[in-house]
Specification:
seven-stranded mixed β-sheet; disordered N terminus; 13 strands; four-stranded mixed β-sheet; alpha/beta; about 270 residues
Length: about 270
Amino acid sequence: MLPSTTESDSGCRTGAVRRRRQAVLERDVAPGIHRLQHASTNAYLIEDGGAVILVDSLFPRSRPHLDTALATIGRSIADVRALVLTHAHFDHLGMAEGLQREGVPLWLHQGDARIARHPYRYRTANSRLWYPFRYPGSLPIFAAMTSVGALSVDGVRGTVPIEADAVLDLPGSPRVVATPGHTDGHVALHLPDRGAVISGDALVTLDPYTTRTGPRVVAGAATVKPELALRSLDALEETDATIVLPGHGEVWREGVRAAARAARAAGID
């Protein structure tokens, strides 16, 4: 059932929303990779040779925080060579249309091209409607997302296609790891020289729909093919990365193999 709406509880939820909509930059979560967190969602800046790529793009109202993060590392939007999307759900597509209008190329697996055009039309294994009743702790998370523009994400077209196993000719030279299941075209990015894999929502350490923490696959409220998502953990495991940089939650530093084992054990809600 939903929590009671006493003044005390309401104040606690309001405070939780306020905290979650604050943006935080964590520098060098892996060598030359910085995490920008906003409304319980992560984007990553990868530096290489004076240039930057942005991986995932948060929410429409995250843009001032992106500019501040770039300035903090001595860069500007002019140094951003590309936005690479792990997938096209609204909480990762966020600023993409605005950045594209400014000339930043958007790179995306074409399995997610339809979602990118229509970011609120995507299939899921389970209905999202009952999750807030079972997991009322998710309400401040989604209220914070809404407050930073989650309901006003514009679709995009004209993306640069990326393919599985390709090494992208971009700063950091990330290798594309196909990790379908959360969405049909979901990919992770492996940076072997930095010991890191950006897992997007193929493996998270916070599930926004259940508020459960620790390595896991996102609930069926946002995952289209749960069994395939669990199988995609094998591809992440094969990177043998030391550091896992998830789309939601804290950085995992105990190795991707341990993370994948924990995620399998956790299952999918």
